[in-house]
């Protein structure tokens, strides 16, 4: 069990990392050469509002997945804000590791933390691929990001679909035909896998349609946000730009959309976290956020 001291040290490490990456992002804004007129500022403000709406749907989706973990709603929102702030700033979705740890700790199960994040990424990626693959096919080729994401979806879907019949067959075969120590260890491994499979089914039971709906709404709003952001940057935003944006996010290459998205997200979530810290300080006389 990770004690409070270790938890505080880990939080402090990520907070220091936020500040460093945010500073680097702000310095990189000079490369965009933006003229900050009133019209441009209005477009950025609209993009910021759309960004928040998209994350309301994403937060709702993740809450549905973790619904049976009984994390109190206010606590859940605090954790979502904190982990999303980390995720926006860290490349290659490395912030998901922090999200697994944080929600796993609150749910008293790191298995729940891992499976909930995996499920969230699965549905988010499914909807995204439904949007970008048709545009890729119009250009007669799949982008590298599409190929990697499609491989992830196929792998997870295949594993989920074949597990139940494979488990039933192997379990029955080993019980009836084998009696060695190796066979017993194999049965134990199968049972552990079955527990993970059943746990995943419980995360989805009765909520799959709502999770898909929130995923669709989140991506529609995010697409509108990127379009509005493109207007502010003086760029035309289309399917090709979306693919470039995804490639930049996955492979850490330069992209105007990604730079502004990171900056807007960091400012919004940073300010929200600052407000939460301030409220807790005024209420309790000390900062208790994240404990």
Describe this structure in words.
This protein is mainly α. It has one domain (4-284). It is 81% helix and 0% strand. The chain has ten helices and no strands.
Structural descriptors:
mainly alpha, 0% strand, globular, 291 residues, 81% helix
Question: What can be said about this structure in brief?
Answer:
Helices cover 81% and strands 0% of the residues.
Strand and helix layout:
Layout: H1 4-28, H2 38-65, H3 73-89, H4 95-106, H5 110-138, H6 144-177, H7 181-204, H8 208-233, H9 239-251, H10 256-284
Helix/strand/pairing category: mainly alpha
Residue share in β-strands: under 5%
| Helical amount | over 70%
Whole-number count of domains: 1
- Main pleated-sheet profile: none
The helix-strand sequence is HHHHHHHHHH
The radius of gyration is 22 Å
The coarse overall form would be globular
Q: Say how many strands there are.
A: 0
The rounded distance between the terminal residues' Cα atoms is 14 Å
């Amino acid at each position: 069990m990770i004690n409070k001291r270790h938890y505080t040290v880990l939080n402090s490490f990520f907070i220091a990392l936020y500040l460093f990456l945010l500073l680097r992002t702000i310095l990189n804004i000079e490369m965009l050469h933006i003229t900050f007129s009133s019209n441009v500022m209005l477009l950025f403000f609209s993009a910021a509002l759309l960004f928040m709406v998209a994350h309301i749907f994403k937060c709702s989706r993740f809450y549905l997945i973790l619904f049976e973990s009984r994390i109190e709603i206010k606590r859940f929102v605090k954790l979502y804000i904190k982990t999303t702030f980390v995720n926006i700033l860290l490349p290659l979705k490395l912030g998901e590791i922090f999200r697994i740890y944080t929600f796993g700790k609150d749910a008293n199960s790191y298995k729940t933390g891992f499976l909930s994040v995996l499920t969230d990424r699965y549905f988010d990626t499914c909807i995204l691929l439904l949007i970008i693959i048709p545009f890729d096919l119009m250009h007669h080729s799949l982008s590298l990001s599409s190929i990697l994401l499609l491989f992830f979806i196929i792998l997870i879907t295949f594993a989920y679909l074949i597990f139940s019949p494979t488990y039933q067959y192997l379990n029955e075969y080993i019980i009836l035909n084998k009696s060695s120590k190796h066979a017993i260890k194999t049965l134990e491994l199968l049972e552990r896998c079955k527990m993970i499979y059943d746990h995943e089914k419980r995360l989805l039971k009765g909520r799959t349609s709502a999770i898909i709906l929130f995923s669709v709404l989140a991506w529609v709003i995010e697409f509108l946000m990127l379009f509005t952001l493109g207007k502010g940057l003086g760029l035309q935003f289309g399917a090709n730009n979306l693919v470039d944006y995804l490639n930049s996010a996955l492979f850490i290459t330069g992209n105007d959309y990604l730079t502004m998205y990171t900056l807007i997200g960091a400012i919004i979530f940073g300010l929200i976290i600052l407000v939460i810290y301030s409220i807790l300080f005024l209420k309790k006389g000390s900062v208790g956020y994240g404990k």
